């Protein structure tokens, strides 16, 4: 059997189209500012793709590029300025940050109402306690993909591989809120393969190229691959051995063209949501 491929690029395009319509009805351009310190290669493609998508959706979007040697106080000053700017609805500080800057301090300084990454402890707490807040883009994008592919989540056995604050933990919280039975597994889990084989929905988010093997996948499972890993030969692969997993899964996301484009679409969605909430806009429909 060969799995159905869940086309994240197409689902993201559809979501961006709906957002463009929503933005044009607002009568103002939601403002997004992305702050990038230094030149971490992982965030290069992301920044370029995001800028293009944001402008196309009608957002007022700009990237603020700071030098690698920027100090923590300087970055905190910029965040304070963006917090105070009424035209700015969303603030995203690209991670990872250079060594001299403590990321948790910077994330804590962002106004939670403008925290379109959903990384502030306030938004993480809102998600954990089932309250409305800004939800991290990648896990939010995964939930959109599951819905678009008509994968039943309620009651399903879901396994999340990875426990990061930016993907694994919020992913588990969202699946739980959608009534899945959620297991989080990680590098210290005994018999990872066995745990993964129990999954009806497997979300792989460890950042290790093709770590999930074909025989880790139950027959008929849905496989969501969050990993984006660059191999020495330049090829881009996920955390899952795609060809082998496709022989067992019923549905699977590719890399590239799976979760990545959804992360960007959800960043735009969060910016629109932040703008609507902050400015007290009442939308029709
Ligand atoms: N504060 C913060 N928030 C982030 O969300 C964040 C970050 N920092 N730092 C860097 C990572 C990386 N990231 C990506 C998102 C989408 C693609 C993406 O769209 N990838 C495409 C194309 C990839 C390619 O062609 O190279 C795909 O998977 O199909 C990639 C990478 C968000 N990140």
Description:
This protein is an alpha/beta fold. It has two domains: 27-111, Leucine Dehydrogenase, chain A, domain 1 (Rossmann fold), CATH 3.40.50.10860; 136-259, NAD(P)-binding Rossmann-like Domain (Rossmann fold, 3-Layer(aba) Sandwich), CATH 3.40.50. 40% of the residues lie in helices and 15% in strands. α7 (168-177) links the parallel β5 (157-161) and β6 (181-185). The longest helix is centred in the last third of the chain and has 21 residues, at 259-279. It is globular, with a radius of gyration of 19 Å. 44% of the residues are buried. The mean pLDDT is 97. Bound molecules: 5,10-Methenyltetrahydrofolate.
Q: What's the topology here?
A:
Elements: E1 4-5, H1 8-26, E2 31-37, H2 44-56, E3 60-66, H3 72-84, E4 90-93, H4 103-109, H5 121-128, H6 137-148, E5 157-161, H7 168-177, E6 181-185, H8 192-197, E7 201-204, E8 222-225, E9 229-230, E10 236-237, H9 242-245, E11 251-252, H10 259-279
Parallel strand pairs: 1-11, 2-3, 2-4, 5-6, 5-7, 7-8, 8-11
Antiparallel strand pairs: 9-10
Helix pairs in contact: 1-10, 2-10, 6-7, 6-10
Protein name: Bifunctional protein FolD
Function: Catalyzes the oxidation of 5,10-methylenetetrahydrofolate to 5,10-methenyltetrahydrofolate and then the hydrolysis of 5,10-methenyltetrahydrofolate to 10-formyltetrahydrofolate.
Pfam family, one: THF_DHG_CYH_C
Percent range of helical residues: 25-40%
Q: Can you tell me the number of structural domains?
A: 2
Bound molecules: 5,10-Methenyltetrahydrofolate
Q: Shape, please? A: globular
CATH topology of the largest domain: the name is Rossmann fold
Radius of gyration: 19 Å
> What value does the average pLDDT take?
97
For the termini, the CA-CA separation is 42 Å
The number of E-state strands comes to 11
By CATH's scheme, which homologous superfamily of the largest domain applies? Answer: NAD(P)-binding Rossmann-like Domain
Count of runs of 4 or more consecutive helical residues:
10
CATH class call of the largest domain = Alpha Beta
Low-confidence stretches: none
Specify the biggest β-sheet. Answer: 6 strands, parallel
- Beta-strand percentage range: 15-25%
């Amino acid at each position: 059997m060969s799995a159905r491929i869940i086309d994240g690029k197409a689902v993201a395009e559809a979501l961006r189209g709906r957002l463009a319509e929503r933005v044009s009805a607002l009568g103002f351009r939601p403002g997004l500012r992305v702050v990038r310190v230094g030149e971490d290669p992982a965030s290069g493609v992301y920044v370029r793709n995001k800028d293009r998508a944001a402008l196309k959706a009608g957002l007022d979007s700009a990237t603020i590029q700071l030098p690698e040697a920027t100090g923590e106080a300087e970055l905190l000053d910029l965040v304070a300025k963006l917090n105070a700017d009424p035209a700015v609805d969303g603030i995203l500080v690209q991670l990872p940050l250079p060594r001299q800057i403590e990321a948790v301090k910077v994330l804590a300084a962002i106004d939670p109402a403008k925290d379109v990454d959903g990384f502030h402890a306030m938004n993480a707490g809102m998600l954990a306690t089932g309250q409305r807040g800004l939800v991290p883009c990648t896990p939010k994008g995964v939930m959109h993909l599951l819905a678009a592919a008509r994968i039943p989540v309620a009651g399903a056995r879901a396994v999340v591989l990875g426990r990061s604050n930016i993907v694994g933990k919020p992913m588990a919280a969202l699946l739980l809120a959608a009534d899945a039975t959620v297991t989080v597994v990680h590098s210290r889990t005994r018999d990872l393969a066995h745990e993964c084989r129990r999954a009806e929905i497997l979300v792989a988010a460890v950042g290790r190229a093709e770590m999930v093997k074909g025989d880790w996948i139950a027959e008929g499972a849905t496989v969501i691959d969050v990993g984006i890993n660059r191999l020495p030969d330049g090829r881009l692969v996920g955390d899952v051995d795609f060809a082998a997993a496709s022989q067992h899964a019923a549905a699977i996301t590719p890399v590239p063209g799976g979760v990545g484009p959804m992360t960007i679409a959800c960043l735009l969605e969060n910016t629109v949501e932040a703008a609507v909430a902050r400015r007290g806009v009442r939308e029709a429909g």
